[in-house]
Amino acid sequence: AGRVVALHYFLSTIDSEVVSVLGTYGEDDYIARELVRNGVRHTAASPFVALETWQKNLAAERLQQAGIQTPRRVVAYAHSKSDWHSLAAKIQDVFGPAYIIKPLHGTQHRDVYRVSNPSDIPRTISTVLSQHPACLIEEYVVGQPITVASVPGLRGQALYHTPCLRHDHRFSSEGQLETADRTAEALLSRSQRDQVYQTQTAVYNTLGL
Hints:
The chain is an alpha+beta fold. It has helices at residues 24-27, 30-37, 47-54, 56-65, 84-94, 121-129, 190-207, and strands at residues 16-17, 41-42, 73-77, 99-103, 113-115, 134-139, 146-147, 150-152, 159-161, 165-168, 182-185.
């Protein structure tokens, strides 16, 4: 059996830390904040960057201010007691169909829905808000979902980008994104790949990653 020990009791004995924790403690800046507070070198993003990117809307707003195109979006909060039918009507006037409805904070593909019929927006908002304090409703963008990792200083490059990977997102009959994700090499022309890398560099620099 183990016991709970406050972090400051043992962090002073650690020289450096490689952070690979996702979820509540890794992505919402708690671990990074405690490492900084105790003077431990680490590989995690700064506490501010971790918190900003954990909240999808804040990151999207920062990118939009820098001129980087992002999906149009609306945030709904569980505590607001709003009329989701009225909100759905307003959303339809701005963008769509279709829509992606997901938790505002990162959840690694959990509780993400694609909605094609606008009449299903209120029900899906209620479903997500029953499990999370806030949700993001954004326009569904048709195309290849692509992931690129960036590492500064690798292979003699100021910012090295890994090969582009395409995600095969699958949604259930109820519209929920399946958590089992398949990846493959992205089918891109050289100009498309260069555009992805250019956008990735802009995102990396804008968010201070």
